[in-house]
Please model this.
Amino acid sequence: MGKPTGFLEYDREENNCIAPLDRLKNYNEFHVYLDAQQRAKQAARCMNCGVPFCQSAIELKGKVTGCPLHNLIPEWNDEIYNGNYQHALSRLLKTNPFPEFTSRVCPALCEKACINGIYDDPVTIHDNEYFIIETAYQNGWMKANPPKIRSDKKVAIIGSGPSGLACAYTLNKRGHNVTVFERENRPGGLLMYGIPNMKLEKQFIDRRIELLKEEGIQFCLNTNVGKDIKKEDLLKEFDAIVLCCGSKQARDINVINRDIDGVYFAVDYLTKSTKNLLDHSPMISAKNKNVVIVGGGDTGNDCVGTALRQGAKSVVQIEMMPKAPDQRTENNPWPEWPNVCKTDYGQQEAIALFKEDPRIYETTLSELISEKGKITQVKTTKIKFENRKMVPVEGSEQTLQCDLLLIAAGFTGMESYINEDFHLDMTPRNTISTQANRYQTSESNIFAAGDVRRGQSLVVWAIHEGKECAREVDSYLMEYTNMD
Model:
């Protein structure tokens, strides 16, 4: 414990942000970080609990609080406070292969379980993690460390998102020969093309990919497994296949005139925006348009932030559910996940620009209106829930101007063409079926991890799944495993 009285002496201080109207001028990350002295005070707030809920990943009422990777949080907080940054790095990397990703995009399940959060503010675990990994890169401590001994086993990993990268990293560290297949022109999966640049600048993905390459992992880009190359071809060359191809089949909306022009899935909109930023390829532009976004989650918020940077005339975000309370209610105590209203960066920017929150709650679309085949308006209807059923409110219809409609209503599992080639058992959620807490499919040499197995989830869960799957693959290949 760095300082026994730290949680009493120091208040929580988060990293600052560039003002919303200023950060809208570009697609750069917008946080301003504390210096080492200030960071030590934040680390000193950690109480080194006898039972650290922050690293325990406990499921309560269907939601998890605490880190799925079981990061050794009190240990590296102590090292930060004492200025032992290399020791802090070693403790961090023991459980998390990619803290440069999680410290940017993770919603910090660890902080929601921090015991300081009962009566005060939790420790800035998320920001402390960022400090450790970026200090390591700045000082040249992050170097390639290829395995000294190689096995003769070859593994194909399909998909280079967080689960695929974590699985590849772990198997390569064990000494197996790993090739990652990616259908896009750059590795990273949803890290590269699903998360906007202002949340995760792509140079930091490239930085880590270069280390993975130096450690011996092969990347085969612009190769769509299931189309360009088939399962049987892979099985001729590889001893095992791991499917980490995500849950990218977007959920559509059932609305009158759905097929008119100007309606796009959020995943396609965000992908094209990032590709335009990186390669100057064509994008779906919101410039001077009235934008309506269906979906109130993280993806919808990312669409808000992206549309504003493109110069949207107006932005409205439609959410079916009621607005969550601003503070925890009595029936939602610590350490349960806090069911409270979150105003994220895109919504903050919309409020700063348009002087009002872009979100409309308890609302759904009923009809799309077009002129000459292109969307011009949408009709909305208020809804209420009765006996867990969605019921429209009579007389609540409204019409909104809309030149661009983005559907951010979630995902419905794996894209169909993949299983048309692999023919694996599927769950009712259209994810690959495995035994509970296992990753081997109905075919012994084929495994699945990440969103393709568990459904749409967080980056930290994908990394966890990739690591756990790698251990199971190693056991299959070697008939035993000594991996941590």
User: Anything to note?
Assistant: The chain has three domains: 6-138, 154-248+412-478, 263-407. The mean pLDDT is 96. The two ends are 25 Å apart (CA to CA).
